[in-house]
């Protein structure tokens, strides 16, 4: 790296090193991981759930700022009523990417008279990120994101993009500090899902009943439980801390607009996981 620094390959994003690398791109991807926030999403045929850590600013001594409104700290954002994004990285870069995504979605809706498909939105964001790798006067966004939606034709869809201009669709995906650990945990969950028979799926297909405050039959909860189990497996949060350090959103054909779960609802899911594992 010292040789690269002396040659200036790590100071110009338009210059490849002799090894064929763009160091500024690697630095941007590393900056995302250094934010110490992890999030993941998982889908099946009928629903999609997303879980993300909630990192709150701390004062001296790692004490939480009592003046802070914790409900305003989030990595989950609505682009449209139908599309939600999970953005992890530098907060300012994430907000900039969010505003770009909303602008793209509004322009598409105005021009064509219909909501933008999630894959088209992801492609346009990736195209913007790729252009940033070509110009020396543009700093790359330290931001990686997941785009989630309930498509009319494809059902639940999940796409990932990063600052290099790359994007792809996934069945389940993790981003952030513990991305590799997320992928390992999600692979085990998907293999376990494939091995389950129909009766086991029905037994684990639960949902929060807002009247009784218990888990009842429904299409959303299986993916929520799987997502929470993956986060617990990588130790992204402890069950003892409850819902204070995470945020969860879900959508299904019955609820096509992404719904953010309350702390009480998340605690019910965590209790169910603790009692059944």
TrEMBL record:
SMART domains on file: Proteasome_A_N
Pfam families given in the database record: Proteasome, Proteasome_A_N
A GO biological process held by the record: ubiquitin-dependent protein catabolic process
SUPFAM superfamilies, sorted: N-terminal nucleophile aminohydrolases (Ntn hydrolases)
Principal subcellular localisation of the protein: cytoplasm
Cellular location(s): Cytoplasm; Nucleus
The Proteasome alpha-type subunits domain, residue ranges: 9-31
Keyword annotations: Cytoplasm, Nucleus, Proteasome
Gene Ontology cellular-component annotations: cytoplasm; nucleus; proteasome core complex, alpha-subunit complex
Gene3D superfamilies associated with the record: Glutamine Phosphoribosylpyrophosphate, subunit 1, domain 1
Subunit structure: The 26S proteasome consists of a 20S proteasome core and two 19S regulatory subunits.
Family: Belongs to the peptidase T1A family.
PANTHER family the UniProt entry points to: PROTEASOME SUBUNIT ALPHA/BETA (PTHR11599)
Protein name according to UniProt: Proteasome subunit alpha type
Source organism (scientific name): Babesia duncani
């Amino acid at each position: 790296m010292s040789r690269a620094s002396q040659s200036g390959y790590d100071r110009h994003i338009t210059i490849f090193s002799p090894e064929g690398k763009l160091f500024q791109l690697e630095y941007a991807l590393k900056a995302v991981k250094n934010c110490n926030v992890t999030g993941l999403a998982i889908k099946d045929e009928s629903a999609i759930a997303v879980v993300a850590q909630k990192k709150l600013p701390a004062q001296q001594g790692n004490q939480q700022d009592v003046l802070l409104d914790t409900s305003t700290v989030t990595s989950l954002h609505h682009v449209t009523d139908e599309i939600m994004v999970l953005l992890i990285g530098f907060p300012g870069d994430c907000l900039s990417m969010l505003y770009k995504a909303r602008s793209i979605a509004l322009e598409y809706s105005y021009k064509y008279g219909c909501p933008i498909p999630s894959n088209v939105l992801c492609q346009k964001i990736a195209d913007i990120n790729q252009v940033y790798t070509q110009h020396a006067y543009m700093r790359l966004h330290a931001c990686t994101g997941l785009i989630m939606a309930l498509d009319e034709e494809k059902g639940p869809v999940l796409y990932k993009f990063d600052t290099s201009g790359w994007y792809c669709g996934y069945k389940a995906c993790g981003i952030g500090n513990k991305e590799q650990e997320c992928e390992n945990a999600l692979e085990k969950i998907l293999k376990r899902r494939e091995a389950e028979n129909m009766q086991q799926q029905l037994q684990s297909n639960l949902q929060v009943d807002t009247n009784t405050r218990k888990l009842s039959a429904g299409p959303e909860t299986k993916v929520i439980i799987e997502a929470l189990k993956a986060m617990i497996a990588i130790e992204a949060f402890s069950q003892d801390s409850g819902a204070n350090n995470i945020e969860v959103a879900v959508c299904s054909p019955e609820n096509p607009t992404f719904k953010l779960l309350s702390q009480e609802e998340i605690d019910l899911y965590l209790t169910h996981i603790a009692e059944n594992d």
